[in-house]
Amino acid sequence: MIGVTLRDDGGKVVAETASRLGQRDAARVSETVARMMRLGDDLAPFYAKVAADDALRWAAAGAGRMLASPTVFEDVVKTICTTNCSWSATTRMTEALVALGGGAFPEPDVLASTPDRWYRGVARMGYRGPYVKAIANDVVSGRLDLESLFVRDGRSDEDVEATLLALPGIGPYAAAHVMQMLGRHRHLVLDSWTRPKYLRLTRKRRAADRSIRHAFSRYGEHAGLAFWLFLTRDWVSEG
DNA sequence: CGTCCAGGTCTAC
DNA sequence: GGTAGACCTGGACGC
């Protein structure tokens, strides 16, 4: 495990470590940081789309690079830990996982060999424990290659979505969420946080998922990103 | 104390 | 294809 500190240097991301790294480790660190900050995504087409958009023009200043985990596996597991529970429960489960990993998120082989009683008794993950362990097992055995989902090798959104939906504990919400982390922004993340927030911002009394999707359909492959930025504009001071 | 629900999903109709 | 119930957990709330 390598401790890395990130800082902003006039618009550039600088990753620093306590001691000098070899070429191999240095390459791994920059590769990981690039994935976490989605530096490989070209958002210019999205920015061009919102240029004439009163609600989202602000985003063209450089918004929309949502922080991802170092691995797809980590994003999948963390996302399962957001389902059907409070945010405090999500952070508690995630903290337990990181403690298990000795300060870093545990590798699949660690999660695969961790006894069920740890999931239940220590992490308090409830029914999610078996889901996570099953996914870890499939990754370790090679039946499942989650990291390949990060590579934009011409694989369609539908294909990636189907792979994610096939995982235990991953439904429509979780698949859309992980896909955002993969730079696939077509699907809207619809859940018990985004739905009410949308109603509040639009001053609507109610809105079916179908009509929310329709409201953002004009953003095409960026509909999910547009939805998310619409909802989180108030997170950015210079809105 | 019981009930409800939180950044849902699964199974069985 | 759509819907009803069950599901770990724990915090909020009413009684």
Biggest sheet statistics: 2 strands, antiparallel
Separate helix tally: 12
Strand line-up of the largest beta sheet: 1-2
Helix-strand pattern: EEHHHHHHHHHHHH
Overall helicity: 40-55%
Residues in β-strands, percent: 5-15%
Report the average pLDDT across residues: 95
* DSSP E strands, number: 2
Radius of gyration: 19 Å
Instruction: Return the structural class.
Output: mainly alpha
Low-confidence sequence ranges: none
Termini gap: 37 Å
Give the overall shape.
globular
Q: Could you explain how this protein is built, in words?
A:
- The protein is mainly α.
- The chain has twelve helices and two strands; from the N terminus they run E-E-H-H-H-H-H-H-H-H-H-H-H-H.
- A two-stranded antiparallel sheet has the order 1-2.
- Helix 3 runs antiparallel to helix 9 and helix 8 packs across helix 9 (172-181).
- The structure holds a DNA duplex (13 and 15 nucleotides).
Question: Nutshell version of this structure?
Answer:
The chain is mostly helical and 239 residues long. It has helices at 23-36, 44-50, 72-80, 87-100, 108-113, 116-122, 128-141, 157-165, 172-181, 194-202, 209-216, 223-232, and strands spanning 4-9, 12-17.
Question: What topology emerges from the helices and strands here?
Answer:
Elements (H helix, E strand, L loop, with lengths): L3 E6 L2 E6 L5 H14 L7 H7 L21 H9 L6 H14 L7 H6 L2 H7 L5 H14 L15 H9 L6 H10 L12 H9 L6 H8 L6 H10 L7
Antiparallel strand pairs: 1-2
Helix pairs in contact: 3-9, 8-9
This protein binds a DNA duplex (13 and 15 nucleotides) through helix 4, helix 7 and helix 9.
